[in-house]
Amino acid sequence: MIDIRVLTIFPNIFDSFLMYGNPARAIQMGLVKIQAVDLRQFADDPRRTTDDYPYGGGIGMVMKPDPIVRGIRSVQGSTNEVQVILLTPQGRQLTQQIVEELSSKASLLLICGRYEGIDERVRYFVHDEISVGDYVLSGGETASMVLMDAIVRLIPGVLGSDSRIDGESFYNGLLEYPQYTRPREFEGYEVPSVLLEGHHEKIRRWRRKMSLKRTTKHRPDLIRSMTIDNEVKELLQEIESESLI
Fold first, then answer.
1. Is the domain of 215 the same as that of 117?
2. Is 178 inside a domain boundary?
3. Residue 220's CATH number
4. E-assigned strand segments in 44-178
5. What's phi and psi for 212, nearest 5 deg?
6. Does 147 share its domain with 202?
7. Tens place of pLDDT per residue across the chain (245 aa)
8. DSSP per-residue codes, 44-82
9. How many domains does the chain have?
10. What CATH number is associated with residue 146?
11. Which H helix or E strand runs over 181?
12. 219 HSE (CA, 13 A, CB side)
């Protein structure tokens, strides 16, 4: 079981997130434990203050280091087995590889920033810093939900025995191939005939080709970083030839 705790000034924001979908299923199955920890309980003043004005001036407030570090130490207890992660735009950008790496950890603590940021000295007490993208959020809570959802769905048993992840976007370094269901024809658009033939090898090859085609168009950077085997080379040549027609 993975133990995930989130240090935040808004613990109730996670209530709905934990009631639906894969996180709820994983919790009910006893495969993960997720707890939002109120950062304010680690403040040392009657007003439970967790932020203050920045040294040197500037707009906004900065989250104080002492409540956060007390929270980290409270969760860690007497061991150092908890992987402490700061959600921050300055962190390494989240990828499927990082998600797989974190899903193997027994215990995670996610720290959610707010306001204009977190006191720089907090970084001395964390193990990793992660960003969910090159954009600005109001706080780390939504970023932590993205990370937790990605981790939870990798836990064996969460998606069910009839579900697979090996064809999903980024799992094999590519975007996912197109998916179709009934009806066979919809407003003039038909399901590709190869999917109706029942030839598993042709379908597999078509799906890989479509993944490559979609990735080439929308995320060429992923193509440049992947291993090119003989089949991928052939499929890329086919895609290039078709684009010239």
1. no
2. no
3. 1.10.1270.20
4. 51-52, 62-63, 83-93, 107-112, 128-131
5. -65, -40
6. no
7. 999 999 999 999 999 999 999 999 999 999 999 999 999 999 999 999 999 999 999 899 999 999 999 999 999 997 778 999 999 999 999 999 999 999 999 999 999 999 989 999 999 999 999 999 999 999 999 999 999 999 999 999 999 754 455 555 565 789 999 999 999 999 999 999 999 999 999 999 999 999 999 999 999 999 998 989 999 999 999 999 998 86
8. -STT---EEPPTT--SS-EE-HHHHHHHHHHHHTT---S
9. 2
10. 3.40.1280.10
11. none
12. 14
How many residues belong to the chain? Answer: 245
Round to whole Å and give the CA distance between 97 and 102: 9
**Residue 230, in any domain of the structure:** yes
Containing domain of residue 40, as a range? 2-152
Closest residue by Cα to residue 178 from 212, 221, 202 = 212
Return d(Cα 80, Cα 71) in angstroms, integer.
14
